[in-house]
Design brief:
- By secondary structure, the chain is mainly α.
- It is built from 2 helices and no strands.
- The N and C termini lie far apart (53 Å).
Length: 63
């Protein structure tokens, strides 16, 4: 087992995520500034979703 796979390391990482990342996700989500993209899709699908989000956001800025 790699050191990164040890339960205590995983628990520490999850704790860091909860402490530092979750509040940021909530902050941007509450302000409708967060778009979620499924990274498990093919690279082409992910890229297309990113382009679609960026196009939408760019149009919102122009208004």
């Amino acid at each position: 087992m790699r050191d990164d796979d040890k339960p205590e390391v995983i628990e520490h990482r999850l704790g860091q995520y909860r402490e530092k990342t979750e509040p940021l996700v909530a902050y941007y989500d509450d302000r409708n500034l967060l778009d979620r993209i499924d990274g498990s899709n093919s690279p082409d699908e992910v890229a297309e979703q990113i382009r679609a989000v960026l196009a939408t956001r760019e149009m919102e800025r122009e208004v």
